[in-house]
Amino acid sequence: MAVAEAESASAAPDAATEADYRQSVSKALAKTPGVIRGIWQTQLTLVIDRSGDDAQVWPRICKEVERYPSLRTVRIQLNPRPDHDEPVRWRQCRTF
User: Fold this and answer.
1) Considering only CA atoms, which of 11, 12, 43 is closest in space to residue 25?
2) Number of domains into which the chain is organized
């Protein structure tokens, strides 16, 4: 995406732009196979409700998050799938 590429060459985006990025990620994840929804609990924590297993959904989640350089290191909470005895998992697509 041109906006995300431009961001990497300049300063961090302003608060309104960052909010737009988060909204775009949530909308894209809602259409992603294996993901029920992605909701931003805080500016740095994305909560994922999912129907698919980790191996299926994790690359798809990171694909959306990594489109925006300022979001690449956010904390992602993977909630257990409905009717599965799984722990909550915390991950990052990238580290600093």
Assistant:
1) 43
2) 1
